[in-house]
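Dear colleague,

Following up on Tuesday's group meeting, I ran the structure prediction for the two-component complex that the binding team flagged. I've pasted the input sequences exactly as they went in, so you can double-check that nothing got truncated or mislabelled along the way. The structure tokens for the whole assembly follow below. Feel free to forward this to whoever is handling the docking comparison.

Inputs:
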Amino acid sequence: MKVDPTLLKDCAKGNRKAQFALYQQCYPTLMEVCLRYRKNEADAAAMLNQAFLKILSQLHRRPTKAPFEAWAKRITINTLIDDFRKNRKVKELIAATDIQELPESYSGVNYNEAEQQFDAEQLEAMIRQLPPVSAKVFNLYAVDGYPHAEIAELLGISAGTSRWHLASARKKLQDMMKKNMNSPKIAK
Amino acid sequence: MSMEPIDDFFKKKFEERDVPFNEAHWAAAQQLLDRQQARRRAIWWWWWAGFMGVVLAVAVFITWPAWWMPSPYTPNASLQALPIPEKQEVAASKQQVAKRPTPLSTKLNAPTTATTQPAKAAPVSPSPSGPPASNPTSTAGPLASNLSSVATNAVTVDSAAATPAAQEAPLTPLPALAFSVEPEAVSPAAALTTTVKPAGKWHTSTLMGGRIYPTQGKVGPVLGIRVSYALANRWSLYAEALYHARPVAPSLTQRSLQQQFGFGRNEQSYELQATSLHYADANLGASYRFSRHIIYAGGGLSYLAGARGQLRRAIKAESAVDFAPQQTTEEGWIDTGGLPDFQLRAQAGYEYRLLPRLGLHLRAQYRIGADAAPLALDAPLSIDVMLNYSLW
């Protein structure tokens, strides 16, 4: 996603046409992020729009050296996590999570075969089946590349708890993949 | 950061994914943008209104007491010579003469003629107890006002009293002078307005300030001149000639698409976007004043004299269909086609005279009839906040 600097200037001035052009350019990348973090498309679109408003309002604060895509993606993830943390029920869920012994690493999935069998939407459906915190930790660490320390800060948990959630998520996902390797479809 | 094969697998799959654009999501985003803009405008509007309110309150506070505190020394006080009463034969009895102390002048062998010092003016005072009531020579008749004081000779050197002949001489009452303060002159507001707007006279003033468009959160400068003619009973007629500039969010006013067919098809599209509109206004109306307050009502006509904006040109060649069109943007005065030339407005205003020559003028204007302007440029309500400085 390469964005013309003049387009960003026009967006900052409030030019609606330029804003539409930027929205179109950002949409695939940012919507993909939102779909991974939310349970359905409508929720994801609502979060995308909130993130887009933040992007527009903070354009003047954008570090000039930072690539626009990475910066916009970070704002979107922060918006998603902020919304997640604001949810009281989820907070209670985090508090009530029973941290057990770290599961052993599990293997047995043929990724070449999985490559042929699963598409992104199916994998997304698998992540949605994970417990909320485990799903967030897996997304942040495995897909978006956040370190445990930052994940811990974002989610308000300890780094050790983040590691546990990641291991738990990996094991559950591998289980799901292995279980569905031979079945052609996974419920989305 | 240790990556497992499953992490790479998921990351790669999501990076390869292409999410198709959904127009409905953009429509929802537009609604959010509109709501955010409206909220910002409202905040700005309330902030501006509050600021102007504070300015007005401070101005009133500063100027009000100076005009309404009654001054004990009014320049309109006038001297009136009261009629001198007829000479009265007043004779002192022998007993009174006997009790009278010997004047100093007698001892010094002063001339035998009675000399009288000219009357001294008593100080003007609003106090009703001003004149000395016990003075027997105070023979003032009915005075023009309650606020009066009688001048008398406070000191009389009567050397004639030393001689027996003079003891029988009649005492002559002195002429009396009185001050009176006319009640009409006390009202400071009357003096102020009389200075500013003499009845039946032409009056010219300049107007300077800003025009606020609350629905769009924009402010443009206003500059002009007002000529008014004062009628009887505090009424006046006024005529104004004003210039005002109205900044607008970049709004499409005209668009044209040209296609050329040669070796393939070339498209050139032109768009004109207005960023500021410049108007000449003519207003007529009537005003009514009471004290320092003036109420205005009337109507006006705005003529769109010019517009500034951007000319955007996009060139797209068929051979370069996979590439974005080349765009150029130029700024300057643009054609006003597609915008209404004239606008009729009804207006009502209020002015507070801060100083004899300076007033703070607030005026609301509402466009009469439908506007042919694009929706983004439509602003039926506007509010003028101006300073009115009287020239002559």
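Chain B is about 20% helix and 40% strand.

Cheers,
M.
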